[in-house]
Design a protein that fits this description.
By secondary structure, the protein is α/β, with parallel strands linked by helices. Helix content is 38%, strand content 16%. The chain has two domains: 121 residues, Rossmann fold; 92 residues, Histidine-containing Protein, Chain: A, CATH 3.30.1340. A four-stranded parallel β-sheet has the order 2-1-3-4, sandwiched between helices. A four-stranded antiparallel β-sheet has the order 5-8-6-7, covered by helices on one side.
Length: 243
């Protein structure tokens, strides 16, 4: 499985990003953090990066997420010193890129696929429009008619933070239990399109608490998929059951 190495000029920043993505993606992905100089100042340390690469060496490779130019230079030096260790530096934003990369790595994806998933963070729109945090659900459009042969459900999201970070990870992983193609649309944001469920798409459609979503499944287990996912959303993505 591809590992994720967080490299920052700040040890605390690197550790914080690593903690975030590890909690979101789960323990099966190897995540490590390197930050600061050897004497604890702001900066980077090629030797520490090399040691981290050696410790997490895997045939599947390691994707290195960096903050600024100095981290890139130090990571390049470490890769040169590492010899046959397979590692690559990502050009994605540090936090969002690490989030997408770690979730993709958890699926068993290749290094190329994990790198491409991280780069999607460069396209992420964070603030699409001015809207209250607790949005009022818009009624489903009269034009949103059921599609023959496809299982679907319209659900109001009640999770306090909507479909973000931890809930998005949980929902994405739940969809992977089924063979059917799972699609989602945020009906409370008519400007968004229906998209295939993926970590990037779940964040991009901006689902907040009170929003209505439409789930559709197409495939051999589509009815079971929609029934399970509908209940999962109503259970606040599994968190009500854990409370």
């Amino acid at each position: 499985m591809v590992g994720i190495l967080i490299v920052s000029h700040s040890a605390r920043l690197a550790a914080g990003v690593a903690e975030f993505v590890q909690q979101v993606a789960g323990e099966k992905v190897a995540v490590a953090a390197v930050g600061g100089t050897e004497d604890g100042r702001i900066g980077t340390n090629p030797v520490a990066i090399l040691e981290a690469l050696q410790a997490m060496d895997s045939p599947d490779g390691t994707l290195i997420m960096v903050d600024l130019l100095g981290a890139i230079v130090s990571a390049e030096t470490a890769i040169e010193l590492a010899g046959d260790i397979r590692a690559r530096i990502s050009n994605a934003p540090l936090v969002e890129g690490a989030y997408f990369a770690t979730l993709k790595a958890a699926t068993g994806a290749s290094l190329d696929e994990v790198e491409q998933e991280a780069l999607k963070a460069r396209e992420l729109v964070k603030v699409a429009e001015a809207e209250p945090l607790h949005a009022v659900a818009a009624p489903a459009s009269a034009t949103e008619q059921p599609t023959p042969g496809i299982a679907e459900a319209i659900i109001t999201v009640t999770h306090p933070v909507g479909l973000h970070a931890r809930p998005a990870r949980a929902f994405f992983q739940k969809t992977r239990e089924f063979k059917s193609k799972i699609m989602i649309r945020n009906l409370s944001r008519p400007e968004t399109n229906e998209v295939v469920v993926s970590p990037f798409n779940l964040l991009q459609i901006g689902v907040r608490t009170g929003h209505q979503i439409r789930l559709r499944a197409e495939g051999e287990d589509q009815a079971a998929a929609i029934a399970t996912l509908e209940q999962f959303v109503k259970d606040d993505f599994g968190e009500k059951a854990e409370a």
